[in-house]
Write a structure and sequence with these properties.
5 helices, 7-stranded antiparallel sheet, globular, 23% helix, alpha+beta, 3-stranded antiparallel sheet
Length: 213
């Protein structure tokens, strides 16, 4: 039998703090909307217009940890933010980020099956009332939470064989400047969810994924 040696990978756990430079707006699908979609798929009669409860819609649009009860940001939103900031012209391709950076979960959302990174610091969210376009150009109102002063500490599992530590830090900073997180972010034509790296808080735990002989 042939002996196969797997090369050890250099993997670091990199903890970073990012500080919001503009407010962050969230818009999670509330259970009422999920039920309408579910009923429609099952052939049930769907009521198009129900009485709106702004407070319920506002609260339901937040991401809250099941174990901690704290507000948070989905891990996949952070990962996608980094992917969208990557570009071959800066020496980091999007496919490389997808394969080499993974955001570690700190909790799980109460409703959605999504892992969260919790806010390190934040004010209580305030309710926004925004006019949105739906369907064939018709207008509607949405009630969403806005976090005005916020920061998060997240841990990225990084394959440093592919992406060096300094490249990760600069990628995160680039993502905070021009991509942003969640609703109405720069990537979507808005100005919300922007952030910058707190360079005084970068912690690295080095280890290797050993090969198998």
């Amino acid at each position: 039998m042939a002996v196969i040696n797997l090369k050890a990978m250099k993997v670091d756990d990199v903890s970073m703090r990012v500080i919001g430079t503009t407010p962050l707006v969230q818009h999670k699908w509330i259970e009422k909307m999920r039920k309408q979609i579910r009923d429609k798929k099952m052939g049930k009669k769907v009521t198009n217009r129900e009485k709106c409860d702004p407070q319920q819609e506002f609260i339901g649009a937040t991401y809250v940890g099941k174990e901690t009860g704290k507000y948070g940001v989905p891990c996949d939103a952070i990962k996608q933010c980094l992917v969208n900031a990557a570009h071959k012209d800066i020496g980091i391709e999007k496919t490389l980020v997808r394969k080499s950076i993974f955001i570690k979960s700190q909790d799980r959302d109460l409703i959605e099956p999504r892992d969260l990174v919790l806010f390190d610091q934040t004010d209580d969210p305030i309710m926004r009332e925004d006019i949105v376009r739906v369907g064939a150009g018709s207008a509607d109102l949405r009630y969403r939470p806005e976090f005005q002063n916020w920061s998060i500490i997240f841990t990225a599992q990084l394959n440093t064989d592919d992406i060096p530590l300094d490249s990760l830090i600069n990628l995160v900073n680039r993502a905070g400047f021009g991509v942003g997180l969640q609703e109405m972010r720069p990537e979507k034509g808005g100005d919300f969810g922007r952030f910058t790296v707190d360079t005084s808080y970068v912690q690295v735990l080095e280890h290797e994924l050993e090969g198998v002989a």
